[in-house]
């Protein structure tokens, strides 16, 4: 007698949609794609309230969003009743629909601590998979600890490139007027790590344990809060970032710039040399592997 094995696992699209719905429910919001001018205008106002740009330097305009949506790109918003608490905007890159680049995402102060950013990204993932898009990429400031933890641990994205002064001066309330170094994160939407993270079971790293096992500390905070470099002479290397770079930039711009230079040299140098960031410890450490995979 022939045994018939039935695959009862839901298709990836259904799995992603269910994870997105669960995340939105847990956050107390409804997440949906946006296309109407009024909603897109609300998105631009939300982003302005978060980034606080100089006059005439909007992160995006409603006209641009309208054009992007009409061309088939993604704008999503998270609503608590009538209130827009978060939004995310992405567009396709080449080759055609080979990947979605998520240009900007943000959550209003009133929505902090509720998991709205996670709900937005899972909605974006489900939407991309429904379009047969396998990968989403985006940039983030590698000095911002909470963003590194969110992107690399909570979402299980992985950095592929260190990009010095990627945007040039942005002159806003978050980036200031300094260099805008970025990491390019790549989110493989169907990888086991990403699927586990979407279900709330991300892989985690512990820097103290890794140090006990011989990991090298290539960058850390000194007693004065400034960067201190060390040798990257082990297969696993830890690269630290300060607890709150945005506050440090305001209180001590010189020390903030010193961190930018040090991280560019250490983390940027490791990536340029073929090493890979494999995770992030919430205590403020990039975990870098020098072993070739």
Automatic annotation (TrEMBL):
<dbReference type="InterPro" id="IPR016181">
    <property type="entry name" value="Acyl_CoA_acyltransferase"/>
</dbReference>
<protein>
    <recommendedName>
        <fullName>GNAT family N-acetyltransferase</fullName>
    </recommendedName>
</protein>
<dbReference type="InterPro" id="IPR038764">
    <property type="entry name" value="GNAT_N_AcTrfase_prd"/>
</dbReference>
